[in-house]
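As agreed, record passed on underneath.
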Amino acid sequence: MVGSANLNIMIKAARRAGRALVKDFREVENLQVSMKGAGDFVSRADLNAETLIKEDLMGARPTYGWLGEEGGGAEGQDPTRRWIVDPLDGTTNFLHGLPHWAVSIALEHKGQIVAGVVFDPAKDEMFFAEKGAGAWMNESRLRVSGRSKMIEALFATGLPFGGRSDLPETLTEMARVAPACSGIRRWGAAALDLAYVAAGRYDGYWERRLNAWDIAAGLIILREAGGLAEPIEPEKDIVADGTIICANEALFSPLAKLVRG
Protein backbone atom coordinates (compact mmCIF):
# COMPACT_ATOMS: atom_id res chain seq x y z
CA MET A 1 0.00 0.00 0.00
CA VAL A 2 1.21 3.52 -0.84
CA GLY A 3 0.08 5.85 1.92
CA SER A 4 -0.07 9.62 2.23
CA ALA A 5 2.98 11.70 3.05
CA ASN A 6 1.79 11.99 6.66
CA LEU A 7 1.38 8.23 7.03
CA ASN A 8 4.84 7.61 5.63
CA ILE A 9 6.27 10.11 8.12
CA MET A 10 4.48 8.26 10.94
CA ILE A 11 5.74 4.84 9.83
CA LYS A 12 9.30 6.11 9.53
CA ALA A 13 9.14 7.67 13.01
CA ALA A 14 7.70 4.47 14.52
CA ARG A 15 10.46 2.34 12.96
CA ARG A 16 13.20 4.67 14.19
CA ALA A 17 11.87 4.68 17.74
CA GLY A 18 11.28 0.92 17.54
CA ARG A 19 14.92 0.26 16.66
CA ALA A 20 16.06 2.26 19.69
CA LEU A 21 13.60 0.48 21.97
CA VAL A 22 14.72 -2.97 20.77
CA LYS A 23 18.30 -2.10 21.76
CA ASP A 24 17.10 -0.93 25.17
CA PHE A 25 14.90 -4.03 25.51
CA ARG A 26 17.92 -6.31 25.12
CA GLU A 27 19.55 -4.44 27.98
CA VAL A 28 16.50 -4.34 30.26
CA GLU A 29 16.23 -8.13 30.03
CA ASN A 30 19.64 -8.35 31.68
CA LEU A 31 18.89 -5.88 34.46
CA GLN A 32 18.06 -7.00 37.94
CA VAL A 33 14.34 -6.29 38.02
CA SER A 34 13.92 -3.79 40.82
CA MET A 35 11.49 -0.90 40.89
CA LYS A 36 14.37 1.55 41.05
CA GLY A 37 16.98 0.20 38.64
CA ALA A 38 14.84 -1.32 35.93
CA GLY A 39 12.04 1.18 36.35
CA ASP A 40 14.40 4.12 35.90
CA PHE A 41 15.93 2.44 32.86
CA VAL A 42 12.55 1.95 31.23
CA SER A 43 11.67 5.58 31.91
CA ARG A 44 14.81 6.65 30.07
CA ALA A 45 13.99 4.32 27.16
CA ASP A 46 10.44 5.72 27.05
CA LEU A 47 11.61 9.35 27.06
CA ASN A 48 14.28 8.69 24.45
CA ALA A 49 11.76 7.03 22.14
CA GLU A 50 9.36 9.96 22.48
CA THR A 51 12.19 12.40 21.73
CA LEU A 52 13.04 10.53 18.53
CA ILE A 53 9.39 10.44 17.44
CA LYS A 54 8.93 14.12 18.19
CA GLU A 55 12.02 15.01 16.19
CA ASP A 56 10.67 13.16 13.16
CA LEU A 57 7.03 14.26 13.37
CA MET A 58 7.52 17.88 14.39
CA GLY A 59 10.53 18.21 12.09
CA ALA A 60 8.33 17.24 9.15
CA ARG A 61 5.17 19.04 10.32
CA PRO A 62 6.26 21.84 12.68
CA THR A 63 2.85 23.55 12.75
CA TYR A 64 0.94 20.55 14.12
CA GLY A 65 -0.06 20.20 17.76
CA TRP A 66 1.30 17.49 20.05
CA LEU A 67 0.00 15.16 22.75
CA GLY A 68 2.46 12.62 24.14
CA GLU A 69 2.40 10.34 27.15
CA GLU A 70 5.72 11.65 28.44
CA GLY A 71 5.90 15.20 27.12
CA GLY A 72 2.32 16.36 27.64
CA GLY A 73 0.40 18.50 25.19
CA ALA A 74 1.02 21.62 23.13
CA GLU A 75 -1.20 23.37 20.61
CA GLY A 76 0.38 24.01 17.24
CA GLN A 77 0.13 26.93 14.85
CA ASP A 78 -2.33 24.73 12.98
CA PRO A 79 -5.04 24.17 15.63
CA THR A 80 -6.85 21.58 13.49
CA ARG A 81 -4.11 18.95 13.48
CA ARG A 82 -2.43 17.12 16.34
CA TRP A 83 -0.07 14.18 16.77
CA ILE A 84 -1.08 11.76 19.57
CA VAL A 85 1.83 9.56 20.65
CA ASP A 86 2.57 6.75 23.07
CA PRO A 87 6.26 5.93 22.58
CA LEU A 88 6.05 2.72 24.61
CA ASP A 89 2.66 1.08 25.16
CA GLY A 90 3.09 -1.96 27.38
CA THR A 91 5.77 -0.54 29.69
CA THR A 92 5.28 -3.23 32.34
CA ASN A 93 5.82 -5.96 29.74
CA PHE A 94 8.98 -4.15 28.58
CA LEU A 95 10.20 -3.90 32.17
CA HIS A 96 9.76 -7.65 32.71
CA GLY A 97 11.39 -8.71 29.45
CA LEU A 98 8.12 -9.74 27.80
CA PRO A 99 8.25 -9.04 24.04
CA HIS A 100 4.73 -7.57 23.78
CA TRP A 101 4.82 -3.77 23.57
CA ALA A 102 4.42 -1.19 20.85
CA VAL A 103 4.95 2.32 19.52
CA SER A 104 1.64 4.09 18.89
CA ILE A 105 1.24 7.22 16.72
CA ALA A 106 -2.03 8.83 15.61
CA LEU A 107 -2.90 11.95 13.63
CA GLU A 108 -5.99 13.89 14.62
CA HIS A 109 -7.67 16.39 12.28
CA LYS A 110 -10.54 18.57 13.47
CA GLY A 111 -11.21 16.23 16.39
CA GLN A 112 -11.22 13.05 14.27
CA ILE A 113 -8.47 10.44 14.06
CA VAL A 114 -7.48 10.26 10.39
CA ALA A 115 -4.37 8.04 10.50
CA GLY A 116 -2.80 5.60 12.93
CA VAL A 117 0.30 3.44 13.28
CA VAL A 118 0.92 0.73 15.89
CA PHE A 119 4.37 -0.83 15.54
CA ASP A 120 5.41 -3.99 17.40
CA PRO A 121 9.21 -3.98 16.95
CA ALA A 122 9.80 -7.29 18.73
CA LYS A 123 7.70 -9.11 16.10
CA ASP A 124 8.33 -6.63 13.26
CA GLU A 125 4.59 -6.09 12.80
CA MET A 126 3.54 -2.67 11.54
CA PHE A 127 -0.22 -2.07 11.81
CA PHE A 128 -1.45 1.09 10.09
CA ALA A 129 -4.51 2.74 8.61
CA GLU A 130 -5.80 5.95 7.08
CA LYS A 131 -9.39 7.06 7.03
CA GLY A 132 -11.13 5.54 4.02
CA ALA A 133 -8.09 3.54 2.87
CA GLY A 134 -8.43 0.32 4.89
CA ALA A 135 -6.16 -1.19 7.53
CA TRP A 136 -2.93 -3.09 6.98
CA MET A 137 -0.29 -5.14 8.78
CA ASN A 138 2.96 -4.95 6.83
CA GLU A 139 1.84 -5.93 3.31
CA SER A 140 -1.40 -7.68 4.30
CA ARG A 141 -4.88 -6.14 4.36
CA LEU A 142 -6.57 -6.47 7.75
CA ARG A 143 -10.10 -7.60 8.42
CA VAL A 144 -11.85 -8.33 11.70
CA SER A 145 -12.78 -11.95 12.36
CA GLY A 146 -15.83 -13.57 10.84
CA ARG A 147 -16.90 -15.40 13.99
CA SER A 148 -20.52 -14.94 14.96
CA LYS A 149 -20.96 -17.22 18.00
CA MET A 150 -20.03 -15.91 21.43
CA ILE A 151 -18.99 -19.33 22.67
CA GLU A 152 -16.32 -19.48 19.94
CA ALA A 153 -15.06 -15.93 20.54
CA LEU A 154 -11.79 -14.87 22.19
CA PHE A 155 -11.84 -11.49 23.90
CA ALA A 156 -9.25 -9.21 25.48
CA THR A 157 -9.50 -6.77 28.34
CA GLY A 158 -7.36 -4.89 30.82
CA LEU A 159 -7.09 -5.57 34.53
CA PRO A 160 -6.65 -2.60 36.88
CA PHE A 161 -3.43 -2.70 38.88
CA GLY A 162 -1.88 -0.97 41.84
CA GLY A 163 -5.04 -0.84 43.93
CA ARG A 164 -7.09 1.08 41.37
CA SER A 165 -10.70 1.59 42.42
CA ASP A 166 -12.19 0.12 39.24
CA LEU A 167 -10.95 -3.44 39.88
CA PRO A 168 -14.28 -4.72 41.33
CA GLU A 169 -16.17 -3.30 38.34
CA THR A 170 -13.82 -4.99 35.87
CA LEU A 171 -14.01 -8.33 37.70
CA THR A 172 -17.81 -8.13 37.58
CA GLU A 173 -17.68 -7.54 33.83
CA MET A 174 -15.33 -10.48 33.37
CA ALA A 175 -17.64 -12.69 35.41
CA ARG A 176 -20.44 -11.90 32.97
CA VAL A 177 -18.36 -12.30 29.79
CA ALA A 178 -16.21 -15.35 30.65
CA PRO A 179 -18.99 -18.00 30.80
CA ALA A 180 -20.29 -16.87 27.39
CA CYS A 181 -17.04 -17.11 25.39
CA SER A 182 -14.01 -19.29 24.68
CA GLY A 183 -11.57 -17.17 26.66
CA ILE A 184 -10.39 -13.75 27.89
CA ARG A 185 -6.81 -12.51 27.53
CA ARG A 186 -5.00 -9.71 29.35
CA TRP A 187 -1.73 -8.93 27.54
CA GLY A 188 -1.10 -5.45 28.86
CA ALA A 189 -0.81 -3.28 25.75
CA ALA A 190 -4.03 -1.53 24.70
CA ALA A 191 -2.74 -0.42 21.30
CA LEU A 192 -1.92 -4.03 20.40
CA ASP A 193 -5.26 -5.25 21.77
CA LEU A 194 -7.02 -2.97 19.28
CA ALA A 195 -4.69 -3.98 16.45
CA TYR A 196 -5.28 -7.65 17.24
CA VAL A 197 -9.07 -7.19 16.99
CA ALA A 198 -8.47 -5.51 13.63
CA ALA A 199 -6.39 -8.50 12.53
CA GLY A 200 -8.99 -11.05 13.67
CA ARG A 201 -6.71 -12.47 16.37
CA TYR A 202 -9.16 -11.34 19.02
CA ASP A 203 -12.88 -11.16 18.34
CA GLY A 204 -13.42 -8.22 20.68
CA TYR A 205 -11.93 -6.10 23.45
CA TRP A 206 -13.07 -3.80 26.23
CA GLU A 207 -11.30 -1.68 28.82
CA ARG A 208 -11.74 1.32 31.13
CA ARG A 209 -9.55 4.23 32.21
CA LEU A 210 -7.42 4.49 29.10
CA ASN A 211 -5.67 7.61 27.84
CA ALA A 212 -6.00 9.20 24.41
CA TRP A 213 -2.55 7.92 23.40
CA ASP A 214 -3.53 4.36 24.36
CA ILE A 215 -6.54 4.34 22.05
CA ALA A 216 -6.18 6.79 19.17
CA ALA A 217 -4.02 4.90 16.66
CA GLY A 218 -5.54 1.49 17.35
CA LEU A 219 -9.06 2.85 17.02
CA ILE A 220 -8.74 3.92 13.39
CA ILE A 221 -6.95 0.67 12.52
CA LEU A 222 -9.84 -1.27 14.08
CA ARG A 223 -12.53 0.74 12.31
CA GLU A 224 -10.80 0.58 8.93
CA ALA A 225 -10.65 -3.21 9.35
CA GLY A 226 -14.44 -3.32 9.75
CA GLY A 227 -14.68 -3.33 13.53
CA LEU A 228 -17.32 -1.55 15.58
CA ALA A 229 -16.40 0.48 18.65
CA GLU A 230 -18.23 2.49 21.28
CA PRO A 231 -17.43 3.87 24.74
CA ILE A 232 -18.84 1.80 27.59
CA GLU A 233 -21.35 4.61 28.21
CA PRO A 234 -22.69 5.04 24.65
CA GLU A 235 -23.34 8.79 24.71
CA LYS A 236 -19.70 9.64 25.44
CA ASP A 237 -16.62 9.92 23.18
CA ILE A 238 -14.16 7.00 23.19
CA VAL A 239 -10.92 8.98 23.12
CA ALA A 240 -12.11 11.65 25.57
CA ASP A 241 -13.80 9.18 27.95
CA GLY A 242 -11.06 6.57 27.88
CA THR A 243 -13.37 3.55 27.75
CA ILE A 244 -14.01 1.22 24.84
CA ILE A 245 -15.95 -1.84 23.72
CA CYS A 246 -15.10 -3.15 20.25
CA ALA A 247 -15.75 -6.28 18.21
CA ASN A 248 -16.78 -7.46 14.77
CA GLU A 249 -20.31 -6.59 13.68
CA ALA A 250 -21.86 -9.93 14.70
CA LEU A 251 -20.40 -10.01 18.20
CA PHE A 252 -20.49 -6.34 19.15
CA SER A 253 -24.04 -6.23 20.53
CA PRO A 254 -23.81 -9.40 22.66
CA LEU A 255 -20.40 -8.38 24.05
CA ALA A 256 -21.57 -4.83 24.78
CA LYS A 257 -24.68 -6.12 26.52
CA LEU A 258 -22.63 -8.31 28.85
CA VAL A 259 -20.03 -5.63 29.60
CA ARG A 260 -22.66 -2.98 30.30
CA GLY A 261 -24.73 -5.37 32.39
